[in-house]
Amino acid sequence: YRENILKTAKALVEDTKLLVSGAASSQDKLAQAAQSSANTITQLAEVVKLGAASLGSDDPETQVVLINAIKDVAKALSDLIGATKGAASKPADDPSMYQLKGAAKVMVTNVTSLLKTVKAVEDEATRGTRALEATIEYIKQELTVFQSSQIPEKTSSPEESIRMTKGITMATAKAVAAGNSCRQEDVIATANLSRKAVSDMLTACKQASYHPDVSEEVRERALRFGTECTLGYLELLEHVLLV
Prior knowledge:
One of its GO terms (molecular function) is integrin binding. The chain folds into 2 domains: about 1-120, Up-down Bundle (A middle domain of Talin 1), CATH 1.20.1420; about 125-240, A middle domain of Talin 1, CATH 1.20.1420. It is about 85% helix and about 0% strand. The chain is built from 8 helices and no strands. It has helices at about 1-20, 25-55, 60-85, 95-120, 125-145, 160-180, 185-210, 215-240. The longest helix is centred in the first third of the chain and has 28 residues, at about 25-55. The protein is flat.
């Protein structure tokens, strides 16, 4: 399925270009570009799922790496379409145009990451390191969203935020063990666990910081510590990658 994935991913990059240029053109062209990209991402998701299935059920962690890679591309495309909608018919120096360029850059980064992952899957010696690189990139993107001024749609209790930090503790222990063993399967498992642990922590932290009972000062501290925790964890993953 590798060639089919590469071909479909290339088509998606072309759709991305049309989306970005479509923001400055007619509504019809923009609609066509959005529809085309939606069709292409559906095809890409299907062929990646077939590729993951072809690996066999005895390697579920690598299957998860592939599924995570296509999920990242789909999320980036959704964000890009939203940014395109916001930038439609706006002048070139409008802030929404800069957001559009940023979203397009993330989109291309995630497609590139998917292609690297697909190629690495066939090489057992690089599977783990590639999975770790993809996770580091994913966490950096999640941190950017966390640090943005966007207010979460819902809030949660401080207790929920505390509960989610336990996942970081578990993932840290797994990362240290993977750094010691240097086995590719341990590194892949660490990469998959780290994605979820950090993402859940950031979501819970931001939701808790916007709880109605939380003061401005406490909110700022919570957001600062959420950022510092993530940066510290990224440093740990970089060390595992180096090892």
